Amino acid sequence: MARALSDMGDLWGSWVPSGWIERVLEVVRANPRTEFFFLTKNPVRYFEFLDRMPENATLGATVETNRDEGYERISRAPKPSERLEAMAELDWPRKVIVVEPVLDFDLEGFAEAVKRVGPAEVYIGYDNYGCKLPEPPLAKVKALISRLEGLTRVHAKSLRPAWYENP
């Protein structure tokens, strides 16, 4: 079982001092029999530490959509296309994509972008906090899951009709 680090935080954010990350990596290296799971919205930061990344690390990125337009109204994180590109370029044996909270997407483009990443696993789920985000209809999410299941292991998390759909 992998140990998640920095739940609801982002150790790899641009504001996090490199020394903090180095100290966490030292702990990971000191525990080689434990698998550690890193998750970020800033996966380009992984490249700074890749030569020192312990083998017992799984590197993940949250990518809620493949659409950049309007994303800045939702988050100050790097654009989804930048995260997908960074993960696709990342040469690491265990990568994970987390599509949560899922935002509306272009089905073919998103499935292809995730395929280029080559993740070992993908997690997909809706918002759990009632934020009325621009969610896709449930049928579209199920279609994405179906496409991705042919490529990798998919974990469907909070699946429900979009907030605007009639239950």
Structural class: alpha/beta
**Helix and strand pattern:** EHEHEHEHEHE
Number of strands: 6
The portion of residues assigned to helices is 25-40%
**Shape, please?**
globular
Q: Report the portion of residues in β strands.
A: 15-25%
Catalogue the unreliable spans: none
Rounded to the nearest angstrom, the distance between the terminal CA atoms is: 35 Å
Main sheet summary: 6 strands, parallel
Q: Roughly how many Å is the radius of gyration?
A: 16 Å
Q: Could you give the order of strands across the largest sheet?
A: 1-2-3-4-5-6
Account of the 3D structure:
This protein has 167 residues and is an alpha/beta fold. 29% of the residues lie in helices and 17% in strands. It is built from five helices and six strands, in the order E-H-E-H-E-H-E-H-E-H-E. It has helices at 18-29, 46-49, 80-89, 107-117, 138-149, and strands at 2-4, 35-40, 57-62, 95-99, 121-124, 153-156. Strands 1-2-3-4-5-6 form a six-stranded parallel beta sheet, with helices on one face. Helix 3 packs parallel to helix 4 (107-117) and helix 4 (107-117) packs parallel to helix 5 (138-149). The protein is globular, with a radius of gyration of 16 Å. It starts with a strand and ends in an 11-residue tail after the last strand. 29% of the residues are buried.
